[in-house]
Amino acid sequence: MIVANPASRLDAGVLGDGRTIAAIATTMGRGALAMVRLSGPDTAAIAQRLLRPASLEPRRASYTHAVDPDDGHVLDEVVATFYRAPHSFTGEDLLEISTHGGLHVPTAVLAAAIRAGARQAHAGEFTRRAVLNGRLDLLQAEAIGDLIDARSRAAHEQALRQLDGGLSSRVRDLRTRILQLEALLAYDIDFPEEDDGPIPRERIVSTAESTLRDVASLLATADRGTLLHDGALVVLAGAPNAGKSSLFNALLGEARAIVTEIPGTTRDAIEAVLDRPHWPLRLVDTAGLRDTTDPLERLGIETSTRYAARAAIVLACAEHPSEVDAVARAIATHTAAPVLQVLTKSDLESNERYAGPAIRVSARSGSGLPVLLAAIDERLMAEHGTQHDDAPGLTRARHQAAVAGAVEELERFSRALSEDTLPISIAAIHVRRAADFLGELIGVLHTDDILDVVFRQFCVGK
Fold first, then answer.
1. Domain 231-384 belongs to what architecture?
2. pLDDT tens column, 85-142
3. Which three-class secondary structure state does DSSP give residue 240?
4. Rounded to two decimals, what is the model's pTM?
5. DSSP state string for 391-444
6. Helix count (H) and strand count (E) of the chain?
């Protein structure tokens, strides 16, 4: 475990080799513009070799030419902006070069930057340097990745709130309270004979209980945050040819699943996110549940049952009223989630008089779809409450594990205090561990392994 102020960790051993890095920061492919970024101590010197003329006036976009540093021939007309450390995204000297798009031009400019003295950046290395230089904490860095990956309005807004520091501030405040509790214990242990006397035990107990309560309250946001981040998993399940794929396509408004009259067509799960006002829905069309000797279809059915086990809601789909109850009972054996009965082909003449509990829908006409979506929203709100737009919450497994660790340590301390099973000097170790868990969450305490986990999924150039 390393204890440090991230802003002070500027040595080459922490930042890797300490060299200036370069990468293409935009998606490769045909497009109007692309961006090449450089960051590090030699950025200004490399700019002098790479740009003609090289304007290094901070924060001013300049029209210039990118040239080959070896022979000086022009590679592209570009717009370059230089940022002087520490007033940049990474906290280092940083150069952003807007080139024409496509495959060749940005690649040629990147190659020229490398020949001029930079090296190719690793995935997430720009943001990693921003964290190590104190420009962002780990939670804000993760928010950048979430913002890039957001597939719904709710996930986008949640990432913006986290990037703005709302969650970081809440975690930092809770950690400060834990450290204040530790300070009370230290005073009570080290200075019991001071004029003020020992700290009243009631004060320690009250402080520990209120801190534990508020940390546990943060942990309780994990399920809601995961739903916003990933989307609520809504699984369409039922027998083959029960109209699951047609319903899936109708809900999305586009043809994503193959719809045929041949039972067993969907042999694997197909996912898509439906952006809804309350909760984003992660719809999954699964293979039909039935007994089969086909090994491929059997694998698809196993996948279906695994999805059902993890679902937030399962839609038990059936074509005929006589099948609805049986399908719902069969699915209930594979999941603890709420099961909504759905009669998928309400436009069939045989289904027109149905008056049972199942929600009647027609993928062909669209009837019943708003009712079904409203029922899904209602069940999600009943299970998870309503989302609070201004309330920062946990969004990742790393967040949940760290806060759960802090809660467990505070619970152990409270038990030791109430049962008087340990000397207070020993029980105080649990308080220190709780503070460490929250410190790891925001990056006050971290190891390279934690950073690797955070930045593993980032793209090169960010």
1. 3-Layer(aba) Sandwich (3.40)
2. 999 999 999 999 999 999 999 999 999 999 999 999 998 899 999 988 989 888 998 8
3. coil
4. 0.71
5. -----SHHHHHHHHHHHHHHHHHHHHHHHT-S-HHHHHHHHHHHHHHHHHHHTS
6. 15, 15
CA-based nearest residue to 54, from 82, 23, 73, 84: 82
Domain ranges of the chain: 2-137, 147-221+394-440, 231-384
Q: For residue 3, is pLDDT > 50?
A: no
Chain-centroid distance of CA 59 in Å reads 31
Asked if 338 and 313 count as a contact pair (C-beta separation under 8 A), the reply is yes
Q: Report the distance separating Cα 459 and Cα 390, nearest Å.
A: 29
| Distance, CA of 103 to CA of 179 (rounded, Å) | 52
Given a contact cutoff of 8 angstroms between Cβ atoms, the answer to whether 49 and 75 are in contact is: no
280: pLDDT strictly greater than 90: no
What tokens appear for 293 in the block? 């000797």
d(CA 307, CA 176): 40
CATH topology of domain 2-137: Gyrase A; domain 2 (3.30.1360)
Separation of CA 11 from chain center: 30
How far is residue 52's CA from residue 47's CA, in Å, rounded to a whole number? 9
Q: Which CATH architecture has domain 147-221+394-440?
A: Up-down Bundle (1.20)
